[in-house]
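WARN  no MSA supplied for this record, continuing single-sequence
INFO  ligand: flavin mononucleotide
INFO  echoing inputs
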Amino acid sequence: MEIYSPKDFPLPFDTAITIGAFDGIHLGHRALFQETFKISELKGLVPLVVTFNPHPRKVIQPHLELKLLTTLEEKLELLEREGFSRVVVLPFTKALAEITADLFVEKYLVDYLRAKAVVIGFNFRFGRSRTGDTELLKNLGQKYGFQVTEVPPVKLEDKTISSTLIRETLKKGEVEKASKMLGRNYTLIGKVISGKGRGKKLGFPTANLLIPSEKLIPAQGVYAVWVYLDFQRFPGALNIGYNPTFDEKELSIEVHILDLNGDMDLYNQALKVEFVKFIRGEKKFSSIEELIQQISQDCQLIRKVLI
Ligand SMILES: Cc1cc2nc3c(=O)[nH]c(=O)nc-3n(C[C@H](O)[C@H](O)[C@H](O)COP(=O)(O)O)c2cc1C
Ligand SMILES: Nc1ncnc2c1ncn2[C@@H]1O[C@H](COP(=O)(O)OP(=O)(O)OP(=O)(O)O)[C@@H](O)[C@H]1O
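INFO  complex generated
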């Protein structure tokens, strides 16, 4: 996939673009992509996604410490899977946030990106203080010669799907609902780091994952997950929490991989986990035997859920 940045402007071809933060690449975003491909074919234009890095809200409201559904790398990989072979990544800065809607259209959409068609969602806003909307874009489209297509809201159970709603859903542990809005399971990718070495003694060795700090971590608890390792998929029991039975102070994200050869050394490997189902909240047990009993039950249930 070709990734363009401002050093490549103006682009050397006419485009059908869709533009947004596109965190998570959910079903609403995918409706925009389908429309972009349709129009680009009809009009003989290059289909192009224009996205921002960092996420605009991280620049405009840094105090909120927004956690993301996708890192830039993950987003680009998902866009490639959607069928895009070209993506523009615009560095989002305070200066870019200050550009007026009119100037953004003239300079970026028309001059730099050579947009002849623009696909946006029902609630798209752009430019300084979010003053640009579909109506303004349509008016400027007539002036500069690009068509504007607005895509109606894609909903799940009467609620409009959005990255914000998916984040809130994951924070509640509702990973199945999040999967429905994403059109795939939520994933975390992390390097295996060393834990306290306790898991092995309990009979349930775990791979402790180091997750990029910008990623959203679902609610604490135990989950049925798929674990991807060396192009193979394994069922897994994942625990997010503070291991209260042992009074740990740091949040750990650890996965017991079912059906894995016990001696396999996973340190420093990258693991991908896909959240399938919330199993239970994390508990403080009064004895290690009770914890072992519970984890064993969790694994039985997880096996039933996944296989
Ligand atoms: C499926 C699963 C469920 C777990 N549930 C709990 C729990 O409810 N309470 C708790 O204190 N620890 C729980 N743990 C965490 C164990 O205490 C943890 O795996 C053990 O302390 C090993 O830590 P280590 O990897 O740092 O050695 C769970 C672990 C797994 C794999
Ligand atoms: N459910 C949806 N249906 C149709 N279009 C959508 C939907 N969600 C987002 N869009 C459109 O996708 C584009 C990119 O939006 P953006 O990346 O801000 O997504 P978002 O899910 O609304 O994010 P956030 O919740 O962070 O505001 C916008 O044009 C927006 O209108």
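Residues 2-160 form a domain with the Rossmann fold fold (CATH 3.40.50.620).
INFO  checksum written, moving to next record
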